[in-house]
């Protein structure tokens, strides 16, 4: 009986060792996938930051142009064409 118990215990240890190897392999795979996702997200964030900076510069340029007009969008009376009924 004792021999069967030892044999059963060895099988359990081998299965346990195998499951630890499988778990470790799965964790390594997940880590590799996670690294890939982090790299992809980092690249996307960098690209979006460049787009945002470009848009901020465009808004600043437009604000400067609008500020130089004196704040009025109306043309002077001299530049206005008379209405068609005149």
Question: What can you tell me about this protein's structure?
Answer:
The protein is mostly helical. Helix content is 78%, strand content 0%. The protein is rod-shaped, with a radius of gyration of 36 Å.
Helices, by number, come to 1
- State mean pLDDT (0 to 100 scale): 81
What share of the residues does DSSP label as strand, in percent? under 5%
Radius of gyration over alpha carbons?
36 Å
SS-based class: mainly alpha
Distance between the termini: 120 Å
Note poorly predicted spans: none
Order of helices and strands: H
The number of E-state strands comes to: 0
User: Percentage of helical residues?
Assistant: over 70%
- Shape designation: rod-shaped
**Mind summarizing the main beta sheet?**
none
Quickly list its features.
86 residues, mainly alpha, 1 helix
Layout: helices, strands, pairs:
Blueprint: H1 2-68
Brief characterization of the structure:
This protein has 86 residues and is mainly alpha-helical.
């Amino acid at each position: 009986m004792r021999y069967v118990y030892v044999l059963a215990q060895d099988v359990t240890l081998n299965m346990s060792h195998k499951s630890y190897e499988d778990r470790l392999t799965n964790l390594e795979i997940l880590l590799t996938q996670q690294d890939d996702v982090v790299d992809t997200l980092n690249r996307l964030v960098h690209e979006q930051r460049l787009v945002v900076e470009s848009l901020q510069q465009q808004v600043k340029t437009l604000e400067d142009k609008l500020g130089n007009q004196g704040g009025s969008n109306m043309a002077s009376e001299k530049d206005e064409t008379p209405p068609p009924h005149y």
